[in-house]
Specification:
With 288 residues, this protein is mainly alpha-helical. The protein is built from 10 helices and 2 strands, in the order ααααααααββαα. Strand 1 and strand 2 form a beta hairpin. Helix 3 crosses helix 7.
């Protein structure tokens, strides 16, 4: 494997070890409601605190779930790389790219939601709440939608964020995204590339041989493709084709997760309205 690809693989293993160490500690957070309840809080100060705490809790759940999802997908990709399983390598690489796109797009939507002046604090809070709720609960599964709907989840939160739209947004920042995604999908889907991953070109000859001793004699030399399971050559090629982009996607996921706004309100607003830069006066995140 070329030095650049080996270095990228080593970096992914370092990130994996760091993630495992951090996520081995159990975290527990209360599950907040699906809707804001401003009607039972007559004062602006209580409404402001309620919006902040509800948004912060949903954002905390989303960030923690994302970190664990990333750890699982990275573990899968590195497992596939060790096994030299080409189709699993491409599948893991595609999942990392899709998660990167969704995270970058979610960060964009949350930043859009909180844009505005301090006098629009309630509108900013509602827009942020709607966006983080959709990021957490959007689903294409009809049964999951039915269950969420029955428990009071608003309809606009049930629509999942579309991968194509998220990928197009990421491609505006990283021009290689669309071409690389097309490559990965061609291996994951039953297309030409996934067929190629099952065999390897072994040169030209007039005789096609089987490892059991059989031979097929042809009238002239022809290209030969050898089929065998497993096929280490295809696995090594898959790792070389994907590992540097996989590292870029993992780093992008980490960056987007760390930059997700945790509240619709700035630290200055929180300090002014609650007396605390975090908007909290006790260690536990219990909605007001």
């Amino acid at each position: 494997m070329p030095p650049a690809e080996l270095q990228a693989l080593d970096e992914l293993y370092k990130i994996k070890r760091s993630s495992e160490e951090h996520l081995a500690v159990a975290f527990q957070f209360p599950e907040p409601a699906f809707r804001l309840d401003l009607g039972s809080r007559p004062s602006e100060s209580r409404q402001f605190a309620h919006i902040h705490q509800m948004c912060l809790l949903h954002a905390t759940h989303f960030a923690m779930a994302t970190k664990i999802k990333t750890a699982y997908i990275l573990d899968y990709y590195l497992w596939a790389a060790r096994q030299l399983n080409p189709l699993a390598v491409y599948s893991g690489a595609r999942s990392l790219l899709e998660l990167h796109a969704v995270l970058a797009y979610t960060e964009h939507l949350l930043c859009q939601a909180i844009a505005g002046g301090e006098d629009d604090w309630q509108g900013r809070g509602q827009r942020y709440f709607d966006a983080i709720l959709q990021a957490r609960f959007g689903t294409s599964d009809p049964k999951a939608q039915q269950l969420l709907r029955a428990n009071g989840c608003p309809e606009n939160a049930l629509r999942p964020l579309r991968i194509a739209k998220a990928r197009a947004f990421l491609a505006q920042q990283l021009p290689w995204v669309e071409e690389h995604y097309a490559l990965l999908c061609d291996f994951v889907h039953p297309n030409m590339s996934s067929q190629r991953a099952a065999g390897a070109y072994v040169g030209e000859s007039q005789i096609a041989r089987s490892s059991t001793g059989g031979q097929l004699l042809m009238s002239q030399e022809s290209p030969l493709v050898q089929y065998k399971f497993p096929m280490p050559e295809a696995g090594r090629r898959a790792v070389e084709q994907t590992v540097t982009r996989a590292l870029e996607n993992v780093l992008g996921i980490v960056s987007a997760t760390n930059q997700l706004p945790q509240s619709p309100f700035t630290e200055a607003e929180l300090t002014t309205r609650t007396g605390s830069p975090t908007g909290l006066h006790r260690a536990s995140l219990v909605p007001d």
